Amino acid sequence: MATGFYNVPKAVNEPVKSYAPGSPERKLLLDTYKKMYNEKVDIPFYIGGKEFRTGNTVDINPPHDHKHCVGQYHTADKEHIELAVKKAAEARVKWAATSWEHRAAIFLKAAELLAGPFRYKMNAATMIAQSKNVFQAEIDAACELIDFLRFNVEFMTEIYSNQPQSSPGIWNRMEYRPLEGFVYAITPFNFTAIAGNLPAAPALMGNVIIWKPARSQVYSAQVIMELFKAAGLPDGVINMVTGNSSTITDVLLNSPDFSGVHFTGSTPVFNSFWETIGKNMNTYKTYPRIVGETGGKDFIWAHPSSNAQEVATAISRGAFEYQGQKCSAASRAYMPASLWPAIKEAVIKDVKSFKMGSPEDTSNFINAVIDNRAFKKLSGYLDQAKKDADAEIIVGGGYDDSVGYFIEPTVIVTTNPKYDTMCTELFGPIITIYVYEDEKWQESLDLVDETGEFALTGAIFSGDRYVIDIATNKLENAAGNFYINDKPTGAVVGQQPFGGARGSGTNDKAGSVWNLLRWVSNRTIKETFVPPTDYRYPFLKESTIETVEKEVETAIEKLKEFSKDLKDKFKK
Ligand SMILES: NC(=O)c1ccc[n+]([C@@H]2O[C@H](COP(=O)([O-])OP(=O)(O)OC[C@H]3O[C@@H](n4cnc5c(N)ncnc54)[C@H](O)[C@@H]3O)[C@@H](O)[C@H]2O)c1
Ligand SMILES: N[C@@H](CCC=O)C(=O)O
Questions:
Q1: Where are the domains of the chain?
Q2: How far is the CA of 550 from the centre of ligand 1 (A)?
Q3: Which of 241, 266, 294, 323 for a ligand 1 pocket mutation test, highest count of atoms within 8 Å of Cβ?
Q4: Which residues are tagged catalytic?
Q5: CATH class for domain 298-491?
Q6: pLDDT (0 to 100) of residue 150
Q7: How far is the CA of 261 from the centre of ligand 2 (A)?
Q8: Is 44 exposed, middle or buried (0-12, 13-18, 19+ CB in 10 A)?
Q9: Which residue's alpha carbon is nearest to atom 12 within ligand 1?
Q10: Which InterPro entries does the record match to this protein (predicted)?
């Protein structure tokens, strides 16, 4: 078989298209959106490459127009999940033995297809069912997913090329085997890129996957399955199942073949997985890998030396883009009293200028929150803030679900740094601000660090390098992604590897070598070219002692002969 040490194409970030008025991409995307909006999609689940339609369906309603229906998806029963385990095991035989360049080629092809013919369908599905505006859909469903696919291939080759030293006469090698079983990928509603990456990353490393997308992301999940099929991913490598989360999880976490979980979502759900896995430990053939990126309560902190307009813009974008439904979104802020009036004025001006509505109208900066549950939860917090003496809503606070689940972008100012909305992840367009006395800026950093259970993203603003140094050190454990003079959202694959610790996850950094390393089980191979044939250490070998004794005896004999010769000579 012909082979070689192949270099993969250098990964570069996918350029973000502008969708400016009159641009061809704008027309293509909006035409696709309208077409898909007025059709009825019928989404199956996928096991072993086959499409399953059970007739037990769930409607797909755009969050910004919830009475409208764009189609339905079919849900699996327990037997289907058991079948998925079987089919994944069957697919594993060939996939795990497929050489890496073929796995790489499939995912590189998927990246190119998404950059080209799949781009508008993927973005439109994300706009329709997840209520993202054009820009938010583009940076997520197109660019970030393309980046994950391209960069992971490069990271894979970095891992494979990491090999041990070899002493003379031997050759040490490191094999990076896929895990012995299947990986369960569970994905959140808010990022199409995460939904694609969580099954794709372990699959790239040779694993087989059972993937369960979030119910409100199933529309773009289907497009991801179509993309992988078009790229040539063999049947059964990624099986996408939809249905009751508990039923699916119960079957998968009870299977002896369960070898890892790749989760992104809320902290309580991940904690429940960890508990179940712990209880089931004796069931599994191998210790499962547990990888989870979870919730956040991300902060913006500003020092009196910072620029008020820069801080205000970071709040307006960091807290409200995609309705604050990014795990990275700023949802608590600490502002110095001296700068607060200027920051407040600028933020209120921004928020009042935001347009809210359907993503089809590209002038809308804000769209709807994901579903009725989120709407009820968020409106409940707004009602509570209106009643609480230690909270004041300075802009926003309204909500309306008559057409879509619309929550007005809201800024709450509190006098209590431990006020509920300073600590709890709300996952919506609400930020709470605590104003501190300028001279207490060091104490305010302690507050940032000590408030809440999370440590995902955080941003500090200052024009003073000594302050930046102190804050960076004090907040060492407060965020896995830390920003200096920038908003805490918008991490880019290959540039800011993403993930947090504490209650925010296992911090394995999506789209990095550290994440991919979790999906391989190394085998060390030592090959000896000329194996020894005698067990004894050289200095103890009988043959050696005998040789030395013989050499000594010979030397003595020679000396005797020499002295005899000498004596004879003297006698003569
Ligand atoms: N840290 C990160 O990188 C990151 C990225 C995106 C989202 N998130 C987090 O995700 C959350 C928002 O997403 P979400 O609302 O989809 O999260 P979620 O926890 O409700 O759902 C995540 C996934 O788990 C499934 N699920 C829910 N309950 C389950 C149960 N009892 N058993 C089994 N599966 C269950 C869901 O169906 C979904 O597929 C936020 O907390 C956000 O911070 C984190
Ligand atoms: N890359 C995104 C990830 C957000 C997760 O929900 C960001 O950094 O904003």
A1: 24-294+511-524, 298-491, 538-571
A2: 80
A3: 266
A4: 293, 327
A5: alpha beta
A6: 98
A7: 20
A8: middle
A9: 265
A10: Ald_DH/histidinol_DH, Ald_DH_C, Ald_DH_CS_CYS, Ald_DH_N, Aldehyde_DH_dom, P5CDH/ALDH4A1, Proline_metab_enzyme
The ligand 1 atom nearest the CA atom of 456: 1
- The whole-angstrom separation of Cα 109 and Cα 124 is 21
The answer on pLDDT for 539 being more than 90 is no
User: E strand or H helix at 400, and its extent?
Assistant: strand 399-400
* C-alpha to C-alpha distance for 86 and 91, rounded to whole angstroms: 9
Q: What is the mean pLDDT of the chain?
A: 97
Residues with CB under 6 Å of ligand 2 are 190-191, 326-328, 489-491, 498
The residues lining ligand 1, judged by C-beta closer than 6 Å to any ligand atom, are 186-191, 194, 212, 214, 245-246, 249, 264-266, 269, 272, 293-296, 327, 425, 427, 456, 498-499, 504-505
- The model's pLDDT over 81-114, given as tens digits with 9 standing for 90+, comes to 999 999 999 999 999 999 999 999 999 999 999 9
Residue 537: the pLDDT is 86
Which of 73, 189, 194, 514 is the pocket-test mutation for ligand 1 (most atoms within 8 Å of CB)?
189
Which atom in ligand 1 lies closest to the alpha carbon of residue 267? 41
Q: How many C-beta atoms surround the C-beta of residue 487 within 10 A?
A: 24
Query: Could you say which ligand is closest to the alpha carbon of residue 492?
Result: 2
In the block, residue with structure tokens 């992840």: 425
Measured by CA distance, the residue closest to atom 2 of ligand 1 is 293
Contact of 391 with 414, CB cutoff 8 Å: yes
- CATH architecture for the domain at 24-294+511-524: 3-Layer(aba) Sandwich (3.40)
- Contact status, residue 53 vs residue 44, Cβ threshold 8 Å: yes
Percent pLDDT > 70 in the chain is 99
| Residue range 230-255: mean pLDDT, rounded | 98
Residue 566 has pLDDT above 90, yes or no: no
Q: Transcribe 452-508 into DSSP letters.
A: SSEESEEEEE-S-HHHHHHHHHHTTTT-SEEEESS-S----TTTS-B--EETTB---
- Please give the pLDDT value at position 568: 84
Q: Which pLDDT tens digit goes with each residue over 386-443?
A: 999 999 999 999 999 999 999 999 999 999 999 999 999 999 999 999 999 999 999 9
Instruction: Taking the CA atoms of 91, 93, 96 and 100 in sequence, report the sign of the dihedral they define.
Output: negative
When pLDDT is cut at 50, 70 and 90, the band that residue 2 belongs to is confident
Prediction ipTM score: 0.99
Confidence of residue 571 (pLDDT cuts 50, 70, 90): confident
Q: Which of 269, 293, 369, 498 to mutate to test the pocket of ligand 1 (most atoms within 8 A of CB)?
A: 269
How far does the centroid of ligand 2 lie from the alpha carbon of residue 308, in Å? Answer: 25
Atom of ligand 2 nearest to the CA of 325: 6
Answer whether 209's CB lies under 8 Å from 237's CB: yes
Whole-angstrom distance, CA of residue 190 vs CA of residue 292 = 15
C-alpha 138/C-alpha 340 separation (Å) is 34
Ligand nearest to the CA of 374: 1
- DSSP assignment letter at 51: E
- Residue 248 CA: nearest ligand 1 atom is 33
Query: Which of 390-429 are b and which e, b meaning 16 or more Cβ less than 10 Å from the residue's Cβ?
Result: ebebebbbebebeebbbbbbbbbbbeebebbbbbbbbbbb
The tokens for 528 are: 């000896």
Q: What is the pTM of this model?
A: 0.95
